[in-house]
Amino acid sequence: MSYGLLKGKRGIVFGALNDQSIAWKVAERAHEEGASIVLTNAPIALRMGEINKLAEKCGNTKVIGADATSVEDLEKLVDESQEHLGGKIDFVLHSIGMSLNVRKGRGYTDLDYNFLQKTYDISSVSFHKLMQTLMKKDAMNDWGSILALTYIAAQRVFPDYNDMAEAKALLESYARSFGYHFGEQKKVRVNTISQSPTMTTAGSGVKGFDAFFNYAEDMSPLGNAPALDCANYCISMFSDLTKYVTMQNLFHDGGFSNTGVSRKIMEKFM
Fold first, then answer.
1. What residue ranges in the chain does DSSP mark as E strands?
2. 233 assigned to active site
3. Which of 118, 159, 160, 170 could form a disulfide with 207 if both were Cys (CB 3.0 to 4.6 A apart)?
4. Residue 68: which CATH number?
């Protein structure tokens, strides 16, 4: 159901790879709610994914390849997006994360530090680069909204989440710190959404993901939050209904983050 929450707004959505992606569902919902959007991902992801299908579903919108670790690419993306959309940007979703150590099977106590730097650059520093580019180009409308997706491993130990835990912690820190400056100077709000384990291409790449997904389902009073519901939360954060929410890490996890132990889990040990 559409409520017209984003009618007349313009946005950029990073990271839609396939229809499992949270970013994919955010793009679909933004379009349904009346927004005009630009889709973007790294050139290699554009070749691997199905983003052109999404573009068709979103009114044949424009797809612009951009390496989010490259300031030059981000500047080009922001300029072309404003030109295509016909004005400044109202909302941006950063849904980018990748660990070379995870991909190469390097455990947390055997990290390749060159891989680690790449992890930070792709998963965290790209968020700062994006916001700095948007600010320097004065590309955001007043009361605009910028979101990044994160995970509770930024605060708690999940052994197999590996160096992505620190990457997410840094991402959340950028949201708070840059959120202060963007709010003070441009009235733009910046937040992170800490989502439940979700059956996406990125999530399923984590060792033991299926078992942990089931554990989180049993730990959460409401169960794991599906990707579509996360997308709906993002839409509410892009809308004018949340104009004074900024610099927050917002848990969207069915209550997992505040549950010590659940009855379902206890029953497995009784």
1. 10-14, 36-41, 63-65, 89-94, 140-150, 189-195, 249-252
2. no
3. 160
4. 3.40.50.720
pLDDT at 47 over 90: no
Q: Catalytic pick from 3, 108, 113, 151?
A: 151
**126-157 pLDDT tens trace:** 999 999 999 999 999 999 999 999 999 999 99
Confidence at 205, pLDDT banded by 50, 70, 90:
low
Q: What is the mean pLDDT of the chain?
A: 95
Q: Give the H/E segment covering residue 102.
A: helix 100-103
The residue segments making up the domain with residue 197 are 10-267
Give the phi and the psi of residue 13 in degrees, each rounded to 5: -120, 115
**Does residue 194 form part of some domain?**
yes
Q: Is 180 considered catalytic here? A: no
* pLDDT at residue 44 is higher than 70: yes
Number of C-beta neighbours around residue 25 at 10 A: 23
What is the number of domains present in the chain? 1
As a whole number of angstroms, the distance between CA 140 and CA 88 comes to 5
Percent of the chain exceeding pLDDT 70 equals 97
Residue 128 CA to residue 150 CA, distance in Å, equals: 14
Helical packing angle, 164-186 and 113-120, nearest 10°: 30
Structure tokens at 101: 């150590």
Q: In whole angstroms, what is the distance from residue 230 CA to residue 237 CA?
A: 11
Query: Exactly one of 161, 174, 215, 233 is catalytic; which is it?
Result: 161
3-state secondary structure of 55: helix
Helix (H, G, I), strand (E, B) or coil at 61: coil
DSSP H or E segment with residue 80: helix 71-85
Q: Is residue 5 part of a domain?
A: no
CA neighbor of 261 nearest in space, from 200, 207, 215: 215
